[in-house]
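User: I'm putting together notes for a lab meeting next week and I want to include a structural view of one of the chains we've been expressing. I don't have a solved structure, so I'd like a prediction I can at least talk through. The sequence is below, exactly as it appears in our construct file.
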Amino acid sequence: MENKLPAEMPPVRDEFERTPQSLGEIGEIARTLSWWQRIKDITILRRLFILVLLAAIWQGYTLWLHNPLLFPTFSATVEAFWNALVNGPLLLRALNSIETLLIGYGLGVLIALLLTTTAVLTRFGEDVLSTLTAMFSPLPAIALLPLALIWFGLGQGSIVFVLVHAVLWAVAVNMLTGFVSVSDTLRMAGKNYGLTGWRYVIKLLIPAAFPSILSGLKIGWMFAWRTEIAAELVFGATSSSGGIGWYIFENQNELQTAAVFAGLLTVILIGLLVEGIVFRTIEVHTVRKWGMQR
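Assistant: Thanks for the context. Below is the predicted structure for the 294-residue chain, given as structure tokens.
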């Protein structure tokens, strides 16, 4: 009779017990940053450094060029800017430009909101907006200047007309893109709460699509600001009611190159202030606060 071999037993692992380590031996959890690392983390200081670097390059190049009629130094431009701001008409011209811009920008955003809301609520409105956007969005606002001059004459009305055109289509396209991107879940939730018509748009679609709307407002602002300066350079002047563009045009005729650069510097500074303060504040208190944007 054949003897059966005992079944092979699996290997037995040795038992052991680890002694838990104290938290102090795990490693470094918090580390104190150096002053240089803290400065590098401040966005405004990093951007200020870039501006200072550009100013230094400007100053160095113009000193080497030594032709103030062609390209004034940065220090001469700052001096011309300060003199025009304190003793000259630059502040008044800047306020005129901002006033005109606000009128045109506000009208453009309002019309864009009406068109987009109608497009969301009705099929006919959607067809109207799509057709108008395809027709007029590629049309440069500056191309409407002669027509605006015929219709509204020389002055603020003509500039407001071209500003509305510059703002309207950019804001409307981004607003409509944001509206159609709202999820079906949110739409059904809004309808379950009884939201219809304007209440549906204001209380559900606009907050849900606000990142796209904000992008459209930024693009519309940039288009409007460029268009206004260009329009003022062409015909935006009725003596004292001219804006920054007219200030640049006047000084260009008098070969005051430093004053021309001062006008351009004013355009840049207003753009930086609007972008860095107005839109930045809106972003912080809306889309970033709501967790829609990092």
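A couple of points you could mention at the meeting. The chain has a mean pLDDT of 85. The two ends are 80 Å apart (CA to CA).

User: Perfect, that's what I needed.
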